[in-house]
Fructose-1,6-bisphosphatase class 1 (Pontibacter ummariensis), 340 residues
Amino acid sequence: MNDKLALPVGTTLDRFIMRKQEEFPFATGELSQLLRDIALAAKIVNREINRAGLLDVTGAYGNQNIQGEEQQKLDVIANIRFIRALRNGGEVCTIISEEEDDVIQTGNHRGKYIVAIDPLDGSSNIDVNVSIGTIFSIYRRKSETGSNGTMEDCLQQGTRQVAAGYVIYGSSTMLVYTTGHGVNGFTYEPSLGEFFLSHPNITTPADGTTYSCNEGNMNSFPEGIQNYVNYCKDQNYSARYIGSLVADFHRNLLKGGIYMYPPTNKAPSGKLRLIYECNALAFIIEQAGGKATTGFKRIMDLQPEELHQRCPLLIGSAKMVDKAEAFLKEVEVEEGIVSK
Ligand SMILES: O=P(O)(O)OC[C@H]1O[C@](O)(COP(=O)(O)O)[C@@H](O)[C@@H]1O
Ligand SMILES: [Mg+2]
Ligand SMILES: [Mg+2]
């Protein structure tokens, strides 16, 4: 029997997490609690976002984050909300956040988990009422409990994620996550204050006809990507680009498609961050049957060297990612370059 039939109509996220935990008799429940903490912070952030236009929380905060990007007020608020929830929850020893230069030690030395988070993704869309999101990755610490998490705990490959997910604050708010046993999506019912299972066992189409990239950067894309974009146009594929990674990813996950953020002149290693943007979405897309690569290497195999490292990203329907990679390879072969 599939999950949809096994679970009663109106399954809340809490109940779903509880049932999943029962399937693993030796699980301690700490990861389940951690997922609940994230869901709670997401509800609070959702409320702030919905009221943003009414309160004084739109616009720039007047500070730059470590990547030299202008922080928005809601970036800062979301960062505070998630950190507070994770600290109070007690399961997390160390947090890596886009909005913090260094790791945050929560003081929970018994906490077994490391969380990497982009508290608010798509900052440029905050003030114009366009979908934005939160992205999170969860790792088990490698070091013994009893002290702070170490840098080695934080710089783990994506293959070591124990869970990952995102929240999309869109026309409805959804939380989508995986613990490595498929992908499930939950829609928020604001009047009840609960996430309900609405998208069980998400799988992504093997192929698609939508491509997503910032074509304003086309002239500085690698030649192989330029050729692939032109191929997409020749095929009359649809171009869809919101400029919020979570929203672009979510659409393509459900409908099929490819999202690309290749290296550009402005961002020679790509713009997106490996630890708290790319790895989480890579884990989800692979669990849904799709692919995520740099164009040459699987994202989740990359060994992070630093907290805010960037990498190129091709992610989505497996056949589309394969095709884009083939275009990149073709240029390399023509130029006699050995694959990186
Ligand atoms: O304007 P660009 O270069 O297309 O960038 C858009 C991309 O940058 C990001 O906004 C980066 O995320 P943050 O808002 O968390 O910094 C992605 O969400 C998005 O896909
Ligand atoms: Mg982001
Ligand atoms: Mg962000």
